[in-house]
Amino acid sequence: MSAETFTHDAARRRRGWADPWSAGAIAIAAIVLAPIVSVLGLALFPSDNIWPHLIATTLPRYIGNTALLMGAVGLVTAMVGTGAAWIIARYRFPLSRWLEWLLLLPLAIPAYVGAYALVDLLEYAGPVQTGLRAVFGWQSARDYWFPEIRSMGAAIIVLSASLYPYVYLLSRAAFREQSGSSEEVAMSLGAGAMARFWRVGLPLARPAIAAGVAIVMMETVNDFGTVDFFAVQTLTTGIFSVWLESNNAGGAAQIASVVLVLVILLVTLEKLSRRRVQFFNLSSRHRPIERKELGGGAAVLALVLCLIPFGMGFVLPATVILRHALANVTEWSDPALLRALGNTLTVGGLAAVTTVLAGVFLVYGVRLSGRSLPRLLLPVTTIGYAAPGAVLAVGILIPLATVDNWMADTFERLTGVDIGLVLTGSAFALVLAYAVRFFAIAQGAADAAMGRVSPSLPMAARSLGRSQGQTLVEVYYPLIRGSIGSALLLVFVDCVKELPATLLLRPFNYDTLATRVHNEASLENLGDAAPAAVLIIAVGLVAVGLLARANR
After folding, report:
1. Does 225 reside within a domain?
2. pLDDT of residue 1
3. Closest Cα to residue 62, out of 276, 291, 208, 224?
4. Could you write out the three-class secondary structure of 61-108?
5. Which residue range(s) make up the domain with 395?
6. For residue 544, what pLDDT is reported?
7. Residue 548: is it exposed, middle or buried by C-beta count within 10 angstroms (0-12/13-18/19+)?
8. Residues 6+ apart with CB under 8 A from 375
């Protein structure tokens, strides 16, 4: 690098906060963290303190149900995801190469869509109970026993079937990375297949499994559509109930703060567990494990064990929803569906572009900054992904409404024109919530991609007189555009599926595909909900295909 460039960079460091890249990075980080700070502030200083009432009445039930749901879903997904990953990573059997990727497909179907499909299949008027009554001659529900569909147990099954791929994906990668030497040593000591799993494979994969289970439990806390449909009262449903039914924003913020503390505790425990349990490959010649060919009954058993989660998580809900969509072809031309599709593409696209641009700007600004504050803020900005959508909605809408009313009053006082609510009366709040919620995806992709760029390339560009902005566009962008494109798609897909924040922040009479599915299914009108659900699934399949390609 030339002496002129060194002098320029030294001057930039002396200017400190005047540097637009550093200042911009700090501003973006502040915007991402503002909703979290807002929730805590509203909870600590509410206009109407209902902590005593909540503690004496509903809060223990909300916390108990949430803890039970998180624990049960975490346990089931750990068993299913880890078991399927072990089978796929260690053995070859019929359809094993296909199942390696088919097991990821439940990620394309939101849990609330799976809930609607399961109830439609198993309810009293559904095909299963109708068939049982026809076969056995039963006349009414009093003639036989059938498990309660809208229950905690059903919610656990649906959420587990939808979320196990997070554990499967991470644990499969961990099992693949293990050395064949450790497997051979265990076999030479007489360890059978189960002993090798419990004593070698599982301990080495524990950090990856713990990370997957932590993601599952955070997604469980975030869920609203499934628990609301199954009438399970959790902390997230409590936020909706206290805010929308009791019209108490402070109480909603207090419940949201409990959720936030729970999520932060979960993330902290997960990081501590990974810090305490670390394994290293000491061999300079790492040799992957050879997959064993299965035959006969063992191959059939492995095939069935992998088909069950795939069938429950994807085939069942996709089949039920597609059947309704094909039976209601007129709904595809419904103007309300077309408006919901347009709204979804608009807010999802705006949020994806905004989020990725902000993520790139933040990472690049932190890399250019010579100060510690931007670097400290970089990892903290990922907390939005851990915070449920309902929590972010509380943290965004209440302070934003205050600012919006002040702007409208001030403008009317100065000009005599009432401009209305510009921020909360439009999709602005929705785009902001999506950007905060999924900022971690864009930031992580940008950080990883820029980290792979050799430092000599931007140095050479700077020595040739390129500015910092020109270096980003001419050097970094061509090298990271693949990762940026992937981040754009993943953020967009998550925006399409997001339900809690959308329900709370959307403008009046502004539906997206997710809210249309929820509204119609809540009215027991799955036929009208099916086309929107099919569109959501189709978008999700594109993301899963991209994910599978990236993890080959």
Report:
1. no
2. 44
3. 224
4. HHHHHHHHHHHHHHHHHHHHHHHHHHHHHHEECCCHHHHHHHCCHHHH
5. 1-44+342-510
6. 80
7. middle
8. 366, 369
Tell whether pTM > 0.90.
no
| Distance of alpha carbon 363 from alpha carbon 440, whole angstroms | 11
Q: Is residue 369, in this structure, part of any structural domain at all?
A: yes
Residue 189, pLDDT score:
60
> Looking at the domain assignment, is residue 84 inside a domain?
no
E strand or H helix that includes residue 403: helix 389-415
Domains held by the chain: number = 1
Element (H, E) at 292: strand 292-293
Task: With respect to residue 159, please indicate whether it lies within any of the assigned structural domains.
Answer: no
Instruction: Give me the chain's average pLDDT, please.
Output: 84
In the chain, DSSP finds a helix count (H) and a strand count (E) of 28, 2
290: left (phi over 0), alpha (psi -120 to 50) or beta: beta
Q: What is the per-residue pLDDT for 212?
A: 86
Give the integer Cα–Cα distance in Å for 450 and 446: 6
Tell me the H-state helices in 223-334: 225-229, 235-240, 249-276, 296-310, 316-327
d(CA 212, CA 269): 13
DSSP per-residue string spanning 33-64: HHHHHHHHHHHHS-SS--HHHHHHTTHHHHHH
State the pLDDT at residue 187.
Answer: 64
Of 547 and 421, more confident: 421
d(CA 401, CA 422): 10
Tokens of 270: 């997960």
pLDDT tens digits, 297-343: 889 999 999 999 999 999 999 999 999 999 888 888 889 999 999 99
The Cβ of residue 253 has, within 10 Å, a number of other Cβ atoms equal to 26
Give the angle 334-339-343 at the CA atoms, nearest 5°: 150
CATH code of the domain in which 446 resides: 1.10.3720.10
Q: Which of 302, 304, 286 is nearest to 294 (CA)?
A: 302
